[in-house]
Amino acid sequence: MFFIRPVLLILFFVINTSALAQTDEINQYVFFDEANVAIKQKDFDRAYELYNYAIEAGSDFAAIMRSAYYVKFGESDEQVDRGVSTLKYYADRGEFFAQDFLAKLYFAGINVPTNYEISRGYFKRHALTGRYNHFLGKIYYEGLGVERSVGTAVFYLLYPYPLGSLNKAGIEKNLKHIIANENLVMNAENGDADSQFALGLLHWDGDFGFEKSESKSLGFFRLASSHGHPLAKLLLTDHACYGEDESEKLNARKYIEQLAKSGLDEAQFKLSQELLLGGCGFNQDWEQGIYWLLKAEKQNHPSARGRLQFEAGMLKEKEGKVPDNLKRYLRDSEWNKYKFLPEVSDEAIVQSMLKYKDSEDPVVTLVLAKAFYYGEGVEADKSKALDLLLTFIEKYGANARIEQLISLINGEQNVSK
Fold first, then answer.
1. Model's pTM, two decimal places?
2. Closest Cα to residue 398, out of 417, 414, 375?
């Protein structure tokens, strides 16, 4: 659809490490693969043991899988809580599989209370892939934890469609169900803004028996907009911004700002892009662009996090530093290179982790070391970070990359081992 202009950013970091570090990389995959075989064989104790070995070798994916193991097979509430806390930690970092598991966990209420609002937030982060947009469609269509909206359901079902959805069959099934069971044309004629908006989307894409027609699509968007539909207003501003009529551009700028201030995440993301690029007649304003991008990311906008990572990386490359509010989006720090330690944004998650700091859990030890190093969720204390890393080596053995992190702290703080 014309209103979706995703920037797909794939960053590869090539890390030269010692022979021991390379051995760790190999061990990660060996232990992880063996753990997955054990899961298939329903040898869960063996799988748990192998996931731990993979984690000690540096596999954050194994940490996610072991957390999922805790939630599904945990023998106590403490294990389930620890699993959920770790999954939230990695989900906050942007790890797809942690977000994926939590989305389905809260949707189905597996060992946690059903919470469609939390589930919807995690599903939205991956709307561009289309993998789980049939869940988003169901949530909005049935009004699960949110106001029922046929138009918004169609919006998310069509969101990735032209890009090549990873679950095209599921999306098509849900769209056909809506079209068959909702009399969209009659409802639109009777002034229903949601049905008008849905028809605008369907005519723009021209699938499922609807004529592909820009004029019909814009006509329905204008009708829905006149009845106060916020997304319809936003899509019309997109059309106006790239037209030739300056008065329409002026009105578009006003609507974009109004909708962004009202809390519409799509409007916040659009405003951020126009400010960052100086489009639609806006004066280029990087700080305001980042401000609105952060607002959109907080609401789980599908493209916001990737753009923030891009902006943080570019700023670090140009100026050698980034402001505090973007540090958590950097993907090239000494810590994040090793993929041990996710960036922290939620103090409650860190406090939850602190309850298990003395547990036999390598992930907790490493996560808390990262939190203390950067002062994320706790007061910064590099000496405590160092102590936790030394504890890791004492409990789980030497690891070349952990030793490099210890050297990093020693070099910065001149703290002796």
1. 0.68
2. 417
